[in-house]
Specification:
- It is a single chain.
- This protein is mainly beta and 213 residues long.
- Helices cover 10% and strands 42% of the residues.
- An eight-stranded antiparallel barrel has the order 1-4-5-7-8-9-10-12.
- Strand 2 and strand 3 form a beta hairpin.
Length: 213
Amino acid sequence: MARLRPAALAVLASVLVLAGCNRPAPGEVLAEGPGASAGGTWSLVADASRLSFVSVKGGDVAEVHHFAKLSGGVAPDGTATLEIPLDSVETGIPVRNARMREFLFETGRFPAARVTARIDFRRFDGLAVGDQLRLPLAGELSLHGVTAPIETEVSVIRAGPSRVVVASRDPIIVNAATFGLGDGVLQLMKLANLDSITADVPVTFQLTFARRP
């Protein structure tokens, strides 16, 4: 199972299935064919992307959550960024959303998490639509005022003439304490009258990028 080293987004798992990957988004530039150059600027397609997480409370009650907003892209030099507005955390329960924003992520002080990495899109020039590569991915995660290196393995899929999907191959196990989120977890336990909330959390993502002018 892949790991963040050191780890931790603290409550982020469960891969989403993408719909309509092969259709160009408004404004998307279509290459001349599946083998056309993958260079240039790539933008995250937010409505075809997902970052999800599972929290486990009471030792055996698992619940799936996600962040409703994501943004990012890949520059021509291969620098990839992913911005995660933490106010957009969605657990399905409004009061729990509010508690996570206030007591766990402290979004008044730390409104977003950011992941940066390097992706060489030129490696995908020869991929036909539907083909995929398996690649290591290393970068940095900035969260709650702490920046730490990350590493995992991803599948990169040519989903269309000018679309690429980057997805985690296995859940990434992260730990809240690395990013100073341990006190927030304890506060959530008290507010919800829980005996435990597991600090080690699985995270998955599936991100779609479209080539832009």
